[in-house]
Amino acid sequence: MGKTFAVIGDPINHSLSPNIHSAAFRELNLDCSYIAYRIPKEELAEGIEGLKKIKIDGFNVTIPHKVEMMKYLDKIDESCSLIGAVNTVTNNDGILKGYNTDMDGFLEPLKKRNVDIKNSNVLLLGAGGAARAIVAGFAKEKAKKITIANRTIEKANNLVKFAQKISLDANAITIDQVEESAKNYDIIVNATSVGLQNEPSPISLEGINEKTVVYDIVYMPMHTDFLKRAKEKNAIVIFGYEMLLGQAVRAFEIWHGMEAPYNAMKKALLGGF
């Protein structure tokens, strides 16, 4: 009897998840299918009932349901409770358990490159959706300090409180205040949506060098202006698609209890660009 998985959200037609997971099933000859299922914001409760009726084996959760979905879970793992949002769910005879793969997905490409996160100085641009998971990741890996730069200081301040609560030294500034300070950081992460529309880099990358890690979580387009500028300085560049892939790999492992076929999933993901 085959297994069925889905991704829920709205809008959903741009989701790359069906491609990535279907490629993994093909690679390992698994009798599974993965569908994109649009559930509008106010119809989450009915949508979940529907998924339970068809005995869905697991599903990914994307915008706008990642926080709201928490209410409908029977169990949650620690990453989920820490971040306060869910993006991966298992269904075990109607018992829904939630996970958040954002943190592991974010850390995966850094680990693949053997980046020394411990004792690093981090600059995080943006304090929105993914930022909490990123802060949690840096806390887990014992970064020395994180500076959170956001357009409005309030959201950055909230994130600083969260960081301090989980034992990560943090401070907040506005993006304008970054100015020429990029060179003072070991790792710079763009978690704003700047770049989606090919806008210019949110900050100046003057003074960074080949030891600086520059990571953009925007994955469309792949080569944002932010990363192009980092490349000009020969920095270590990490693409947004790598985080997306890290999340998918982690979800696959949660659902199937086996190692994910990384290269097959990567090929499918990059084919979708």
From TrEMBL:
Protein name as catalogued: Shikimate dehydrogenase (NADP(+))
Reactions this protein catalyses: shikimate + NADP(+) = 3-dehydroshikimate + NADPH + H(+)
Quaternary state and interactors: Homodimer.
PANTHER family named in the record: BIFUNCTIONAL 3-DEHYDROQUINATE DEHYDRATASE_SHIKIMATE DEHYDROGENASE, CHLOROPLASTIC, SHIKIMATE DEHYDROGENASE
Residue ranges occupied by any Shikimate dehydrogenase substrate binding N-terminal domain in the UniProt entry: 7-89
Binding site for NADP(+): 78, 126-130, 150-155, 217, 240
Species lineage: Archaea, Nitrososphaerota, Marine Group I
Residue stretches making up the Quinate/shikimate 5-dehydrogenase/glutamyl-tRNA reductase domain: 113-193
